[in-house]
Write a structure and sequence with these properties.
Layout: H1 4-42, E1 52-53, H2 55-67, E2 73-80, E3 86-93, E4 100-105, E5 108-113, H3 114-120, E6 124-129, E7 134-140, E8 144-147, E9 153-156
Parallel strand pairs: 1-6, 2-5
Antiparallel strand pairs: 2-3, 3-9, 4-5, 6-7, 8-9
Length: 157
């Protein structure tokens, strides 16, 4: 003779078994998807080992170089501070240091020191001319999670 609790268990076992199989399939498919995303994002692509310059950035640097007697380099460095933890610092320079990486496009050179480069790998430098300001800025940075609206500071992933 079967008790009422025994019959309830026998009726619920198929339901719970089906739910466990369903959850197992969902978990295994999401894990597979996550692994494929991680493996594709961890494999270095040629574009993440550089810093790109937009056409606006190149054009503005050529204008600045035409005004100067010597060939100026655009230097990008990262400093602690700003609204989000780190901030971009742009300056014009006429020399490079031993630890600098140089990125060139159409005769315009961007210089980034090795420590700062770790924060801007794969980034794009732009020049924006707006009503409130005109400045060089990092328009995209795959190493940044977020930042302030003025695009002068960022948080690291």
């Amino acid at each position: 003779m079967m008790t009422s609790s025994g019959s309830l268990i026998h009726r619920l076992v198929p339901y719970f078994s089906a739910q466990i199989r369903r959850n197992s399939r969902l978990l295994s498919s999401s894990c597979a998807l996550r692994e494929s995303v991680l493996s594709s994002s961890e494999s270095p692509s040629p574009s993440t080992n550089t810093v790109r310059l937009t056409n606006n950035c190149v054009r503005r640097m050529k204008e600045l170089q035409a005004e100067e007697s010597s060939m100026k380099l655009l230097r990008l460095s990262i400093e602690a501070g700003g609204c989000s933890g780190f901030q971009y610092n742009f300056s014009l320079d006429d020399k490079t240091n031993n630890d600098d990486r140089i990125f060139e496009q159409d005769g315009v050179k961007l210089v980034v020191d090795n420590i700062s480069f770790d924060f801007v790998k794969g980034a794009t430098v732009d020049y924006v001319d707006e009503l409130i300001r005109s400045a060089f800025q990092v328009s995209t940075n795959p190493s940044a999670v977020g930042g302030c609206s003025c695009k002068s500071s960022f948080m690291v992933k």
